[in-house]
From TrEMBL, chain A:
This is NADH-quinone oxidoreductase subunit M. Residues 127-420 form the NADH:quinone oxidoreductase/Mrp antiporter transmembrane domain. Belongs to the complex I subunit 4 family. Keywords: Membrane, Transmembrane, Transmembrane helix. It is found in: Endomembrane system; Membrane. InterPro entries: NADH_Q_OxRdtase_chainM/4, NADH_UbQ_OxRdtase, ND/Mrp_TM. The keyword Membrane applies. It is a multi-pass membrane protein. The chain crosses the membrane at residues 28-47, 67-92, 131-151, 163-184, 210-232, 244-267, 273-295, 302-323, 329-351, 371-393, 405-426, 447-468. Pfam families: Proton_antipo_M. The lineage of its organism: Bacteria, Bacillati, Actinomycetota, Actinomycetes, Propionibacteriales.
TrEMBL record, chain B:
The keyword Heme does not apply. Pfam families: Proton_antipo_M (PF00361). It comes from Nocardioides daeguensis. This is NADH-quinone oxidoreductase subunit N. Belongs to the complex I subunit 2 family. The keyword Glycosyltransferase does not apply. Keywords: Cell membrane, Membrane, NAD, Quinone, Translocase, Transmembrane, Transmembrane helix, Transport. NCBIfam families: NDH_I_N (TIGR01770), PRK05777.1-4 (NF004441). Its main location: membrane.
Length: 503, 533
C-alpha cells in the first residue's frame, strides 16, 4: 500500500490544487510535495538493502489482456523515487513567483501539472507490469506538454509541440514492442505483462531483437541519445528552469531506467548483441553533446546539451554490462539529477536578474552577486566531475567499465572530462568574471533566502555523496548483481596476478 | 411452389420491432398533430422508443440460448425470422451500443438553446435557400419534426444491418439505414447549399454503392445457390468450380460495405458529408453508421466467407493501409474542424480494419487470449463515444454565422473556456490513442489481434499512421491552448441546454472509464461469444 500512497498522493494533490482557489495553490502544492517527500522517506526506511524487489503490490487490472496493477521497488527504482520526491518541492520553491508572470498560464496550473507529473513519474519508477509502465510512461507526457507549452519564454508552443511529437513517436514504437510482447507471451501460455513473468519468458532470438529495438528506440528518444536528441535543447531553452529540472532530471531518467530494467531485464540476449551499436551511439553522444555545448550562447541550451553528453555516459555504463558500469550508471542517474538540477535552478536565478539567457550579454555577476556566483561554480564543478563532489564517483566507475570493455572506448569517453571542463569553466568565466556593467551593478541583487533554501539541499547532497557515496552504492549494488545474473554475465577476473600469489 | 407462413420470434426481435413501430407512430403524429405542438411529443416518443428498445435488448441479451450450429460451431443466440435475422451475442452487443448512440443523437437533435430557441434543422426544407419562403419560415420559427421518425427509421436499419442472416435482408437494412440519413444530411438550418450538396453527394455515391452490393449478392447467389450466410458458408467450404464468381462477388459486396464504413478508396464522400450535414446528424451518423456497417462487414466476412479467409484478408490489408495513410495524411492539411474529424474517421476505419483482418481460428488462439471480433467491438465502442462527444462540442463553438468550424476561430479557446476546450482535447487524445483514454485500449486491442495473426507489416504501418495522426490532434490542442485568439473574431462557447452538455458529459465519462477500467466492458464483449450461423 505504501507505494500506492506514494503514487496517488501527488495525483490526488494535483486534482485538489486544480479545484482549490488560486490563492492557496502554491502553499497546498508545496504541502503535498513535502508530504510525498515524507512518504518517500518512509519507503526508503522500510526498504531492505538485500531484499530484491520489494514493497510489492499486485492487483488484477484488465484480465482480458493479462494486465496487472503491480508496483514494487528495487535499488534502481528506490534511488530514482527518492530523487523525484526531493526535486519536486525544490522546484516549486525555486519557481515560487515565476508562474505568476504575465502571459503564462498561472500558478495554479503550474503547481497542478507539476504534481501530476510527479505522481506519474513515481508510477513509472515503481511499475512492475509492462503495460502499466507503458500507460504511465505515455501519460507523463501530458503534464510535461502543458508545462513546456504554458510557461517559459516566447516560442514555447513550438518547442512543446516538438517535444511531444518526438516523445509520442517513441511511445508508439514502444507500443508496437509492448504488443509484440503480448503476442510472444500468449504463444507460451496465458498472456501476462508482469515483469516477473516476462523475465522468465523464452523469447526467440529474432523476435527478441526486434522487440529490443522497439524498447531501445523509445528510451533513446527519452534519454536522449544521438541522433534522437534534437528536441532536448529547444525544450530546455524555452521552458522555465524548473520545468527543465523536471524534464531533464526526472523524466529523461526514465530512458536510462528503462534501458536497465526492460532492455537488459527482458531481452538480455538482444542487449548483448546490440552492445557495439549502443556503445557507439553513446560515445557519439558524449563527445558530440560536449562539443555543441561548448558552442552554445544560451545558458539553458548549454545545460540541456551537457545532459546529452551525460546521458551518453550513463548509457555507456549500462551497456558495458559489468557491475562497475551498472553501479556507475545508477549512481550517475542520481548524481546527474542533483548536479543538473542545481545548475538549472541557479541559472534560472541568473536569468531572473539579468533578463537574458545569452552568455555573451552577461558579465561580472560575481562582484554584485557573490553567493549566486559561488553556487553556480559548485554546481558547474559538480557537472564537470570534480573529485569531492558526487558525480565524480559515478563518472569514475563508468570510465573504469569503459576501459574494461575496450581501451579505445575508455579513451574516447575520458575526453568528456576535458570537454566538460571547457564548457563549464568557460561559461563561468564569461558570465561571472570581468568588469560589471554599470547598469547591472545597481539592478542585480544577490540571492534571497528562499532561493538559497531551494538549492541548499542539492548542494549538501552533492558534497555529502561526494565524500561518502556508500549509501548509494549499498542500495544499487545488489540490484546490479541481480541484473548481471539475469543477463548471464560475470565480471572478468582481474588479469593482473594478486601480489600474494606472485611471491 | 408452396408458400410457408413465416414464423417470427417476437420476443427476441422485440428491440427491432419497437424501433420500427415507434418510427411509424412518429409518422402518424406528424400527420395528425398541428405543426406547433409536434416537437415535444416527437422527442418524447423517440426517447421512449429507444429506451424501451434498450431495455428489451438487455432482456434479450440476458437469456440467449445455447445454439448448436450446423457444423458444430457453438455460440449463444438464435437464428430467427426464418433465417433472415440472427440474434446472437455480437448482435445484442451492437444493438445496445447503437441504441445508446441513438439516445445521444436524439439529445443533440432536440437541442434548441444553441440556435436561440429553434433546432439545428431548417425551418422549411422545401423552400429554396435564400428565398422568401425560407425567410418566412425562419421568422415564424418553424422547424421540421420529421427528423425524429427519420432518426428512428435509420436506427432500425442500423439494428437490422449487423443482425441480418442473408444477403437480401442485409441489403434491405442497408437501404433502411441509408435513405433517412441522406435526407437528414440535407436539412441544415445554416449553410443550406453546403448541406444540400452533401446530401446529394451522399445519395449519389450511396446509390452506386448499393448497386455494387446488389450485383455482388447476385454473383454470390450464382456461386452458392443460396443467399443465406449459412448456405453460402457451406458452399464456400465445399468448394466449386466457379471460384472466380465467388471472388468477384466478395469484392463487389465488400465495395458496398466499405463505402458505408468510409474506407479508402471509397472515402471521398466522408469529408463533404460530415462537413455539410447538421453537426448533430454528423455525430449520430459518424458513430451509428460505422458501428452498424462494421457489424455487417464482420458478419459477412466471418460467417459467410470465413472459409475463404485467405482470399479476402489480402484485400483488407490493402484497404486498411490505404485508409490509414490517406486519412492521416489528408487530415493534416485540413483547416476545418469537421473535415479534420472526418478524415480522422477515415484513418480510424483503417485502424478498425486492422482488427478485422486479424481473425484467427479458435485453435490458433491461446487460452485467455481475446479474439479479433472482441477487439473490433471494443474499438467501435470507444470510437463511437469519442466521435459523438467531439461533434457535440463542435456544435457549441459558435460565432455570428453559426457554428465556427474554421481552425482560426478555435484559437485561444482554452483561455476563454478551459472546460470545453479541455473536454475536446480529451476526445482528441482518445482518438490519438494516448494511454488512460478509451482510444488507447481500443487501439491496443485491434493491433494485438492483427499482430498475433501475423499481420505485422500492417501493424507497423498502423503505428506509423498513429504517429502521423498525432500531429494534427496535437496541433489542434496547441491551437486551443497556446495560440492567441485571432484578431478578426474568435468563436465563443455558447451555453447549451442539458441535452448537449449531458451528452458530452456521458461521452467524456465513458471515454475516461473505458480507458482506466476497461475490464467490465471487455468482459461483456468477451461474454458475447462468437457469431452463430
Amino acid at each position: 500500500m505504501l507505494l500506492s500512497l506514494l503514487v496517488w498522493l501527488p495525483i490526488a494533490g494535483a486534482v485538489a490544487v486544480a479545484l482549490l482557489p488560486r490563492t492557496v495553490s502554491k502553499t497546498a502544492g508545496l504541502g503535498v510535495a513535502l508530504a510525498t517527500l515524507v512518504v518517500g522517506g518512509v519507503v526508503a526506511a522500510s526498504y531492505e538493502v538485500d531484499g530484491g524487489r520489494q514493497l510489492t503490490e499486485e492487483h488484477q487490472w484488465i484480465e482480458a489482456f493479462g494486465v496487472h496493477y503491480a508496483l514494487g521497488v528495487d535499488g534502481l527504482g528506490l534511488l530514482l523515487v527518492l530523487l523525484t520526491v526531493l526535486l519536486v518541492p525544490l522546484v516549486l520553491g525555486a519557481e515560487w513567483f515565476k508562474a505568476d508572470a504575465v502571459g503564462s498560464a498561472g500558478a495554479r496550473s503550474f503547481v497542478a501539472w507539476t504534481l501530476a507529473l510527479e505522481g506519474l513519474s513515481l508510477a513509472v519508477f515503481c511499475a512492475t507490469d509492462v503495460f502499466l509502465f507503458y500507460v504511465v510512461f505515455e501519460a507523463t507526457l501530458i503534464p510535461a506538454y502543458f508545462l513546456v507549452g504554458g510557461f517559459g519564454r516566447e516560442g514555447r508552443g513550438a518547442a512543446a509541440l516538438k517535444f511531444l511529437m518526438f516523445q509520442l513517436a517513441g511511445g508508439l514504437i514502444l507500443l508496437a514492442a509492448v504488443i509484440g510482447l503480448y503476442v510472444v507471451s500468449a504463444q507460451q501460455g496465458e498472456p501476462s505483462y508482469l515483469l516477473s513473468d516476462l523475465e522468465r519468458l523464452d523469447i526467440g532470438t529474432e523476435a527478441g531483437r526486434w522487440l529490443f529495438f522497439g524498447f531501445f528506440i523509445a528510451f533513446a528518444i527519452k534519454a536522449p541519445l544521438f541522433p534522437l536528441h534534437t528536441w532536448l535543447a529547444d525544450t530546455t531553452e524555452k521552458a522555465t528552469p524548473g520545468t527543465g529540472v523536471l524534464l531533464v532530471c526526472i523524466l529523461d531518467k526514465i530512458g536510462t531506467f528503462g534501458m536497465m530494467r526492460f532492455c537488459l531485464g527482458i531481452f538480455p540476449e538482444a542487449s548483448q548483441w546490440a552492445t557495439p551499436l549502443v556503445i557507439t551511439l553513446a560515445l557519439i553522444s558524449v563527445v558530440y553533446g560536449a562539443f555543441i555545448a561548448i558552442g552554445q550562447d544560451d545558458i539553458f541550451r548549454l545545460i540541456g546539451l551537457t545532459s546529452l553528453s551525460h546521458f551518453g555516459l550513463i548509457t555507456l555504463g549500462v551497456f558495458t554490462m559489468t557491475s562497475q558500469g551498472g553501479t556507475g550508471a545508477i549512481l550517475y542517474m542520481v548524481n546527474h539529477g542533483l548536479g543538473t538540477a542545481a545548475l538549472f535552478l541557479v541559472a534560472g536565478y541568473l536569468y531572473d536578474r539579468s533578463g537574458t539567457s545569452s552568455i555573451r550579454e552577461m558579465r561580472g555577476v560575481e562582484k554584485v552577486a557573490p553567493v549566486l556566483a559561488g553556487l553556480l561554480l559548485v554546481a558547474g564543478l559538480a557537472t564537470l566531475g570534480l573529485p569531492g563532489l558526487s558525480p565524480f564517483v559515478s563518472e569514475f566507475l563508468v570510465f573504469v567499465a569503459a576501459f574494461d570493455y575496450g581501451w579505445y572506448v575508455g579513451a574516447i569517453a575520458v575526453t568528456a572530462v576535458v570537454l566538460s571542463a571547457i564548457y563549464v569553466l568557460w561559461m563561468y568565466q564569461r558570465t561571472m568574471t570581468g568588469p560589471t556593467p554599470p547598469e547591472a551593478e545597481a539592478a542585480t541583487k544577490d540571492l534571497g533566502v528562499r532561493e538559497i533554501v531551494a538549492v541548499a539541499p542539492l548542494m549538501a547532497a552533492l558534497v555529502f555523496f561526494g565524500f561518502y557515496p556508500a549509501p548509494l552504492l549499498d542500495v544499487s549494488n545488489p540490484m546490479v548483481g541481480d541484473l548481471m545474473h539475469q543477463v548471464g554475465i560475470q565480471d572478468d577476473q582481474p588479469t593482473v596476478a594478486q601480489t600474494e600469489e606472485a611471491h | 411452389m408452396e408458400f410457408v407462413k413465416p414464423e417470427l420470434e417476437y420476443a427476441e426481435l422485440l428491440p427491432l420491432l419497437i424501433v420500427l413501430g415507434g418510427a411509424c407512430v412518429g409518422v402518424a403524429l406528424e400527420a395528425f398533430l398541428p405543426r406547433g405542438t409536434r416537437r415535444l411529443p416527437q422527442v418524447g416518443l423517440a426517447l421512449v422508443t429507444v429506451v424501451a428498445a434498450l431495455v428489451s435488448t438487455v432482456v434479450v441479451g440476458m437469456d440467449l440460448d445455447e445454439h448448436q450450429g450446423a457444423d458444430g460451431a457453438e455460440g449463444r443466440g438464435l437464428v430467427g425470422a426464418m433465417g433472415s435475422v440472427v440474434v446472437d451475442g455480437p448482435t445484442v452487443y451492437l444493438w445496445g451500443l447503437l441504441l445508446v448512440f441513438a439516445l445521444g443523437g436524439i439529445a443533440l437533435f432536440a437541442e434548441q438553446r444553441l440556435e436561440g430557441g429553434v433546432s439545428a434543422f431548417t425551418g422549411q426544407a422545401a423552400a429554396l435557400p435564400g428565398s422568401e419562403g425560407e425567410r418566412e419560415a425562419s421568422t415564424r420559427g418553424l422547424e421540421h419534426t420529421e427528423v425524429y421518425p427519420l432518426l428512428l427509421f435509420a436506427v432500425s436499419g442500423m439494428l437490422l444491418f449487423p443482425a441480418s442472416g442473408d444477403l437480401l435482408t442485409m441489403f434491405v437494412a442497408l437501404e433502411i439505414l441509408s435513405l433517412p440519413l441522406y435526407l437528414l444530411c440535407g436539412l441544415a438550418r445554416r449553410r443550406r447549399l453546403l448541406s444540400q450538396e452533401a446530401a446529394m453527394k451522399y445519395f449519389l455515391l450511396g446509390a452506386f454503392a448499393s448497386g455494387f452490393f446488389l450485383y455482388g449478392a447476385a454473383l454470390v447467389y450464382g456461386y452458392a445457390g443460396s443467399v443465406s450466410f449459412a448456405g453460402i458458408n457451406e458452399a464456400v467450404r465445399a468448394g466449386s468450380a466457379n471460384h472466380g464468381l465467388l471472388l468477384a462477388g466478395i469484392g463487389l459486396l465488400a465495395v458496398g460495405l466499405l463505402f458505408k464504413i468510409g474506407a479508402a478508396p471509397f472515402q471521398a464522400w466522408t469529408p463533404d458529408v460530415y462537413q455539410g450535414a447538421p453537426t448533430a446528424v454528423t455525430a449520430f451518423m459518424a458513430a451509428g453508421t460505422k458501428v452498424a456497417a462494421f457489424g455487417a462487414l464482420l458478419r459477412l466476412l466471418y460467417v459467410a466467407f470465413g472459409g475463404e479467409r485467405w482470399s479476402w484478408q489480402p484485400m483488407l490489408w490493402v484497404i486498411a493501409i490505404a485508409s490509414m495513410v490517406l486519412g492521416a495524411v489528408l487530415a493534416i492539411v485540413q483547416n476545418d474542424v469537421k473535415r479534420m474529424l472526418a478524415y480522422s474517421s477515415v484513418a480510424h476505419t483503417g485502424f478498425i480494419l486492422v482488427g478485422v483482418l486479424g481473425v484467427q481460428s479458435a485453435g490458433e488462439l491461446a487460452k485467455g487470449q481475446y479474439t479479433s471480433l472482441e477487439g473490433v467491438l471494443f474499438y467501435l465502442t470507444t470510437y463511437g463515444f469519442a466521435m459523438i462527444g467531439a461533434f457535440a462540442i463542435v456544435t457549441l463553438v459558435r460565432d455570428a454565422g453559426g457554428e465556427a468550424t474554421a481552425y482560426e476561430r478555435w484559437a485561444g479557446l482554452g483561455r476563454t473556456s478551459p472546460l470545453v476546450a479541455g473536454a475536446f482535447a480529451f476526445f482528441l487524445l482518445s482518438m490519438a490513442g494516448i494511454p488512460l483514454t478509451a482510444g488507447f485500449i481500443g487501439k491496443w486491442a485491434v493491433f494485438t489481434s492483427a499482430l498475433s495473426a501475423g499481420a505485422w507489416p500492417v501493424v507497423l504501418v498502423a503505428i506509423a499512421c498513429s504517429i502521423l495522426a498525432i500531429t494534427f490532434y496535437v496541433r489542434h490542442i496547441r491551437l486551443m491552448f497556446f495560440t492567441e485568439p485571432s484578431a478578426d473574431g474568435a468563436g465563443v462557447v455558447t451555453r447549451s441546454s442539458l441535452l448537449t452538455s449531458g451528452t458530452i458529459t456521458v461521452c467524456l465519462v465513458a471515454t475516461l472509464v473505458l480507458g482506466v477500467v476497461p475490464g467490465p466492458v471487455l468482459d461483456l464483449v468477451t461474454r458475447t461469444g462468437d457469431f452463430i450461423r
